GDP-L-fucose synthase (Scleropages formosus), 327 residues
Amino acid sequence: MIVLQMEKRVEPMRVLVTGGTGLVGRAIEHVVREEGGAREGEEWIFVSSKDANLMDAKETRGLFEKRRPSHVIHLAAMVGGLFRNMRENLDFWRNNIHINDNILQTAHEMGVAKVVSCLSTCIFPDKTTYPIDETMIHNGPPHNSNFGYSYAKRMIDVQNRAYFQQYGRRFTAVIPTNVFGPHDNFNVADGHVLPGLIHKAYVAHKEGTPLQVWGSGTPRRQFIYSLDLARLFIWVLREYDEIDPIILSVGEEDEVSIKEAAECVVDALGFKGQVVFDTTKADGQFKKTASNAKLRRYLPDFKFTPFPQAVKETCDWFVANYKTARK
Ligand code: NAP
Ligand code: GDP
């Protein structure tokens, strides 16, 4: 008997990255283009709101019809730090619900093989035990400061499970902690803590004024460098086969206080002035310590960039790109 071994033809991926011009999108683009993250024959397409307003269903459909992706990394979102979240809960809810529903439903209608969306550890319940893991996302209300963003993001997980249950679609999500790196949003009023501190310390250094750290400095955060996150995102797209989400985070032992994070920025920029804590400003959720045990089961040897090195690289990028950086 002759057994003919048919070689399975695997079509190269055509990956559409929504939010491709943002902090995480630019990091994925860097890894794909500069670190050999792409494989032969693959096509990677990075899009922004200029290509299509994803809050609009017709524009979303038009983008998919034009680009015909086989895979989607879905990053596009209304994103902001604690203080923007506190001011604009309704917009965070509505804009993100529309964007996410348009992307997932269009990917379903167009037969996309896999979508990897992005949740966040700031959607976790406020009152909880620690460390928080992937099974606990829906176990109680999120912190009141960012309930609009949090509930909208949680619904991605609900939709992923429902698309799988009804249609067998392989849509999943990652849960990164607080991300920072080159191309972040350094706007002090709207952005996250690290880009905010870097921008404020840069200006304070030039003007000889104190660095104002908002809040008490005691809350604790796990930070992830955008380039580490990008490498993990590409692994998830290629290898991670679950519908349930996966936390992408440094270990619990690498959680730092906001005060320690500010000290790192001060060191990286060589800031010699006074550092003051403005306790009239909100602290937000005290901590959201996440377990990376699931990630470690899959990738026991993955090396995260040490936090001081990643902060230094981000500060250097900001100084070198001050004129054009988002701020
Ligand atoms: P970002 O730097 O603010 O970038 C947002 C991206 O989304 C930009 O490319 C933007 O396009 C695009 N976008 C926004 N609204 C859009 C719309 N209506 N239509 C089409 N595109 C739109 O955000 P990021 O920090 O890279 O975040 C990426 C993902 O990671 C988000 O899903 C976010 O929720 C998640 N995440 C972020 C963090 C963090 O600390 N930054 C932590 C956890 C999870 P334009 O450039 O044209 O505006
Ligand atoms: P979160 O991690 O989702 O809460 O969001 P952020 O990245 O905005 O971090 C908020 C924490 O950093 C709170 O404890 C703030 O009080 C503190 N913080 C200190 N200085 C700043 C700043 O300049 N900008 C922001 N966004 N937060 C700051």
